[in-house]
Design goal:
Length: 128
């Protein structure tokens, strides 16, 4: 039995956006058992295009991804849904990268991340 079900009994959707396919596969492997519908994207622009229709419960995004950074993606998701829950993940920057930003992620996780900590973070965000 899944741990999470939305009020409509469908699984909450979680977007995971990272240009590293291996990390997308890892995220899907650890989050799917929570009862999440995990959607992975190597292209943040594609994730943003699918964002309105999918209405994800949580967006996890890497910081450095080429043309669009994770902070850019978070800003655009929040423009579309000001209440969007987000987690910024990075192996290249720390939390100072968004210290002065108008739009900040709800959580920041440094790579390599503790799998249990990330699962607990997503679980908490979905419950709220």
């Amino acid at each position: 039995m899944a741990l999470f079900r939305s009020k409509t009994t469908s699984a909450p959707t979680v977007f995971v956006v990272d240009d590293e396919v291996l990390l997308l596969e890892l995220a899907a492997t650890i989050l799917t058992p929570l009862g999440c519908n995990v959607r992975t994207f190597t292209d943040p622009e594609k994730a943003l295009k699918e964002f309105p229709a999918a209405a994800p419960a949580v967006v996890l995004t890497d910081y450095a991804m080429g043309r669009m950074s994770g902070m850019d993606l978070i800003r655009e998701c929040r423009r579309l849904n000001p209440q969007q829950k987000t987690i910024l993940i990075s192996g290249t920057v720390d939390g100072e990268v968004f210290a002065g930003a108008a739009v900040k992620p709800d959580q920041f996780v440094a790579k390599p991340y503790d799998i249990n900590k990330l699962v607990d973070m997503v679980r908490t965000m979905i419950k709220d």
